[in-house]
Amino acid sequence: MPVFLILSIVFVLWLGFEIKKHSKPNNTLSDEFWKREGDANFVRPKDISSLDYLNVPIESLPFKDNTTEAILEVQNQILKLSQKKLLNLNGLSNTDLKYQYGARNFDELALCDQNYLIFIRTLNKWAHLLQTEGFTEDVKTILEYCIQLRTDISSTYTLLAEIYAKEGNYSKINDLILKAQDLNTLMKDSILQALHSYQNQ
Prior knowledge:
Number of domains: 1
Helix content: 55-70%
Largest sheet: none
Radius of gyration: 25 Å
Shape: globular
Strand content: under 5%
């Protein structure tokens, strides 16, 4: 039998063994996921009335009357969103929510989380619009509020860090870094990298 053919057979056998070997952990993870998901669907609903819903301090936010149409539109969106239930559930998967609060509460909790996400995106948009109009102090008020809400929008952190850097207020940038380190999000590393760049200006 030619050497090339022998090597080909050996390679095919080895490849099959490796594929089978590596597929076992993946199959195990998949089985565990679906078992946990199935179990979560039968968790009894818990009381969710006392969760940490956001209470939006409308009176503390810098609403303006005489301004651009774009800013007025965003302000109106903020007012409407402030009347909805807002809940930051960042870091919790759908399965986690069902396990912790029961499957029957999932739809309501998912809606509260969606409202929160839209809210912080709208706040971020508002701040950037105000920045183009030169309202730096108002921008800081909005962005600092977003940070309190544990937003993971990168441009919220970078715009605020840019303002602090222009003011020479590097201790505030250090505070931002400490808060970003506590985030439970995939954006954490990129946010921290961006913030560290403002430390060195």
